[in-house]
Amino acid sequence: MRPYLLLRAAELAAERPAGSTEDVHFTEALAASVIEDTTAVGDVVLDPFAGYGTTLAVATRLGRAAVGVELLAERVERITARTAGRATVVHGDARNLSELLELHGRPVGSIDLVLTSPPYMTSVDHPENPLTGYTTDDGDYATYLRELGVVFAQVASLLRVGGHAVVNVANLATGDVVTPLAWDVGRVVSEHLSFRGETFLCWDEHPPGHAGDYLLWFRHT
Ligand SMILES: C[S@@+](CC[C@H](N)C(=O)[O-])C[C@H]1O[C@@H](n2cnc3c(N)ncnc32)[C@H](O)[C@@H]1O
Fold first, then answer.
1. Whose CA is nearest to atom 2 of ligand 1?
2. What's the gap in Å between 118 CA and the centre of ligand 1?
3. Which of 101, 118, 170, 199 is 20 to 30 A from 181, alpha carbon to alpha carbon?
4. Which of 118, 110, 130 is nearest to 65 (CA)?
């Protein structure tokens, strides 16, 4: 586990898919660093919040098997095209992760690495629900954290013993208020997996609204 990674905002912008206005992804360099440090060729990498498919694209390029779950159909199509059909991309809700993976031949204990970044939420001024793709206004921070716990409980059972889970998450600034999202997600995931430490993501230009950006490292012991 590296204490910090240097990241460039221009690299993130250059990797943003055509037609997209949101930087809801991490960089390919970040994904490659984690995947190379924790897995070998032929291992299975899972992203339960697959987004634009950065984890899956880099994993397949490095000779790993890749599986992802994504709620939004348009992003599922994007990932399928980006990975040229070499990854398993499941259109569904990560809150049903175990069932979805079982249906696609990935049972309990079959995953070597989970590399993911959940959809973010602030503790104030945030009625949109991250876990419905921000499409409903029933957002509630405590419920959101509890439901992330439901996802990571399933992540823990899907990981083989000794497997890693690496979560990219930032603390978020809204005016003067900072939501300690990284600390809250860390606590939630720690209920299911053993916390091993963090990598500080050192941006040349800080992403707007981020107070501090991290990789949180966990292991299924
Ligand atoms: C922060 S983005 C992940 C970006 C990804 N790491 C990348 O680099 O491309 C979070 C993703 O989770 C998806 N999502 C939100 N709720 C979900 C749910 N309940 N089940 C599965 N995916 C969900 C969002 O649509 C979004 O694409």
1. 51
2. 6
3. 101
4. 110
CB 170 within 8 A of CB 158: no
**Ligand 1 centre distance from Cα of residue 221 (Å):** 26
Assigned domain for 56 exists: yes
In a domain, 54, yes or no: yes
Q: Give me the domain span that covers residue 122.
A: 25-160
Q: Is the CB of 150 under 6 A from ligand 1?
A: no
Say what the pLDDT of residue 106 is: 95
Q: What is the pLDDT of residue 107?
A: 93
**Number of folded domains that form the chain:** 1
Question: Which pair of tokens denotes residue 77?
Answer: 């199509």
Ligand 1 atom nearest residue 94's Cα: 20
The domain spanning residue 93 has which CATH number? 3.40.50.150
DSSP E strands, 3-144: 4-7, 44-47, 65-70, 88-91, 111-116
- The answer to whether position 59 is within a domain reads yes
The reported pTM is 0.97
Q: Is the CB of 25 under 6 A from ligand 1?
A: yes
| Inside any domain, residue 102 | yes
* pLDDT tens-digit readout, 12-24: 989 988 877 777 7
Separation of CA 71 and ligand 1 centre (Å) = 7
Burial of 180 per CB tally in 10 Å (0-12, 13-18, 19+): middle
Q: What is the pLDDT of residue 132?
A: 94
For residue range 80-120, list pLDDT tens digits in order. 999 999 999 999 999 999 999 999 999 999 999 999 999 99
Closest CA to 8 of 28, 22, 24: 28
